[in-house]
Amino acid sequence: MAQEAIAVSHAEAAAQRRQRAARLRLAGRLTLHLILVIVAITFLVPTAWLVSSSLKASTEIFESPIHWIPSQPEWGNYVDAFTKEPMFLFARNSAIVVVAAVLGTLLTSTMVAYSFARLRWPGREFFFGLVVATMMLPDVVTLIPKFILFKQIGWVDTFLPLTVPYWFGGTAFYIFLMRQFFKTLPYELEEAARMDGATSLRILAQIMVPLSKPSLATVAVFAVFANYNDFLHPLIYLNHTNDWTLALGIRAFNDVYSAQWQLIFAAATAMLLPMVVLFFAAQRYFIEGIHLTGLAGR
To answer: Model pTM?
Structure first.
């Protein structure tokens, strides 16, 4: 009887420990979700204020305290934003720049990353380290030399400075992401293809690229966001209004003496929508690509 009582007490103690551990795990998950909700709300508040202000009259935007719901929604702000300035022309220019830059980024970053990940050549690791080291170099450091170069070859006031550089290696960050993904793919696939007489370009095009859709989607989303939202480079290289992109065109609602904030917010909200749609459309590939590119390769 004593042994049975001891066994029962041990079982009850174990059950209590499991219950305490389960409660602690539940409390940890609830705390984590609460923190994530607070962070999400923190990031969404400026966006909510942007959308709300796009529907307000100019006199209502900066009222204190903030009125989150407009007293009378001004839907005409969106009409005025697209009629007072050639926003559709700006959108076309943005589309040209983004498509050309993203295609160049995907093509050249993939080729360079494949070379660093799968091909063996002297100095490979040294040059890869050199490429990665360029990520520590601020873009503004090379801004003036690049402008002088593009001005001397006659590219200023064209889309060429905004697109052509991406056809010569993309950027170090995208090369790093693609290289990490390529290193996770089985080497047996490549070896079997080489035994069948496939060249490196054929292996890249017919084996590596089809298997790299998540990573390519990740790079594409990053590249679209970066080029679509870029303000500094169009400001430097594009002088004529007809060549402005959306990010630069919104500035047209500012003049020397005042700013039409309701139109700026309306145009910014309209500019935000395509990126939101793109993110949710590519969300599955994007998250999968971020996960896979973090895996350790050979």
So the answer is: 0.81
Q: CA 159 to CA 96: how far, in whole Å?
A: 8
DSSP structure string for 6-62: HHHHHHHHHHHHHHHHHHHHHHHHHHHHHHHHHHHHHHHHHHHHHHHHTTS-TTTTT
Backbone angles phi, psi at 196, to 5 degrees: -85, 0
pLDDT tens per residue, range 145-189:
999 999 999 999 999 999 999 998 778 999 998 998 888 888 888
Nearest to 234 by CA among 159, 287, 298: 159
CA distance 157 to 93: 13
Which residues are CB-contacts of 55 (< 8 A; sequence separation ≥ 6)? 70, 73, 74, 75, 77, 266
What does the chain come to in residues? 298
CATH code of domain 76-292: 1.10.3720.10
Ranges of each domain in the chain: 1-53, 76-292
Cβ–Cβ under 8 Å, residues 156 and 150: yes
Residues 221-253 pLDDT 10s:
899 999 999 999 999 999 888 999 999 988 888
Please, are residues 227 and 101 in contact by the beta-carbon 8 Å criterion? yes
